Fold Putative transmembrane protein.
Amino acid sequence: MMSTPKLAFATVTGMMIYLGLAVLGWGGFAAFFSHPALSVVAIATLVLSVVAIFSRVNLSAGEREDRDNRWVIAALIVIGLLQAYLPAYTDRKEFWTLDGDRLRWLGVVLFIAGGVLRIWPVFVLGHRFSGLVAIQPGHTLVTTGMYGVIRHPSYLGLLVNALGWAFTFRSGVGVLLTAITIVPLVARIRSEETLLHTQFGAEYDAYRAQTSRLIPGLY
């Protein structure tokens, strides 16, 4: 499990890189923070990052890990860096922009809602939530609350958050990057579910039969 200082350093560093790329793409601090919607998104990013510091997320391989799935982490990092910079840049350059300020503010709402949905399961699962596809010591299934409806709420939150970011910058490129994100996420979901089936057998199969992966009734 990551200690709080290490988690704080990683979280703050990641946040600064992400926002820094967006500011660079938009053309500088003065230009970026002159727009209310972008200022709100920046503040929301800061708040969510501070909250994340108090979670128990870890990068432990635990008792059993699917190491073949580690490529997903690298893929998500690359997509994330592109998502940080390109929507802001294409918005400033008026390249493949989608709409006006109403879409920006819809993006702000989706960004915040997705960020909350992304981080909430981290607190629900505690030490069982890992950046790796792994079974942690004392691992048990959580099948109540949001997990009683969908099996991967944090991944749904990630997608909603990314789509909100793209809308905030009116970016068709950002929407495309969000769609591309689905590919490694589905690969990770399949890997997780295979590992959980191996660990919990019929108990996980029964749980899987009653829930959806990401969107109730659809997937």
